[in-house]
Amino acid sequence: MKMDALIALEDGRTFPCASFTGPGETWGELVFNTGMTGYQEILTDPSYRGQIVTMTYPLIGNYGVNPEDVESDRIQVAGFIVREYQAFPSNFRATDTLADYLKSQGIMGIDDLDTRALTRHIRNAGAMRAVISTRDLDPASLVRRARETPSLVGRDLVREVSTRIPYRWVAGERVPIGEDTALDATLWREKGTKFSVVAFDFGIKYNILRCLAAAGFEIVVVPASTGAAAVRAMAPDGIFLSNGPGDPEPVTYAVETIRSLLGYRPLFGICLGQQLLGLALGGRTYKLKFGHRGANQPVKNLDTGRIEITSQNHGFSVDMASLSADEIEVSHVNLNDQTLEGFRHRSYPAFSVQYHPEASPGPHDSRYLFETFSKMMAAA
Ligand SMILES: NC(=O)CC[C@H](N)C(=O)O
Q1: Entry pTM
Q2: Which of 49, 193, 233, 296 is most exposed by smallest CB count within 10 Å?
Q3: Over the stretch 141-186, which tens digit does the pLDDT of each residue have?
Q4: Which residue numbers are catalytic?
Q5: In the chain, how many domains are there?
Q6: Contact 57, 34 (CB under 8 A)
């Protein structure tokens, strides 16, 4: 049963719509994703914390939801906006409808509005603060309230999503590491058979862990606040810097830790991991007007000349000009807007990409990067 709702943007634009998840109210930075499939992976990606996601593909919900296609243990988005919600899924894997999935976690689902107009507005005016409500349908009041919500800029959202305790990723499951277990080199009992990787959880997607495991690594996932000394005590073969939500700049504790681990062991970063590595190397990050979110962004691999069709979800970027060319080599560039999509250090064993080689959702063109990480550890 749908009910009247209203979306209000901080710049005064409002969009009458309908809630397909019942009464509610939510707020966040409004962004759009151009992917045609993968709405469950998008909903559960911790990188979207604090954001209301609009899908440009109109029919959403048509394959339901299932327990497998998740990127974390919960829905992370602040709200979900689609053109036309499909209430009757047709998929042998479906175990629930999208509406019931959202309702079960108190997340608003909105449809019956012109999502093309909303998307074009965000493209022209930039990602911005928004409020959605079924309770307050007065445009002036809701616009005022949108302007009162906090901006994404300057907020450390990593703290809200990072694991509180270290865990191993074993056969696709999280296995918590007991309080009494020392996080030291003895942790890797099978060391010698596989490379051991400490993965910082800045909001890590499960499919990154699946890809690291598929590459043959023993993985321990640690809280974002884990210090360099604790990582050194674990004596891993490599260190992974994960994706995650929000503005990279306020995550200063992670930047400091990464800076002190440069050169210690091979480092591989994805998305927020690239941004934190860029900051640790003295670079600067900046906010893109509306970000890159979708599954068809063309990225040129400067080593091979190949164009990779990539999955992307980011609203910040590392300023290429802020990195020293003596220290950093650019490896990947976005062909749509020439933004920095990947770099490596010229002397430390450290590399990163801004896009998502693990996809989920999206194409698998860039899975080779996990093998690159393996070769870097083999050469260390
Ligand atoms: N997926 C991510 O890691 C996103 C990184 C960062 N929060 C951004 O929006 O740019």
Answers
A1: 0.98
A2: 193
A3: 999 999 999 999 999 999 999 999 999 999 999 999 988 899 999 8
A4: 271, 356, 358
A5: 2
A6: yes
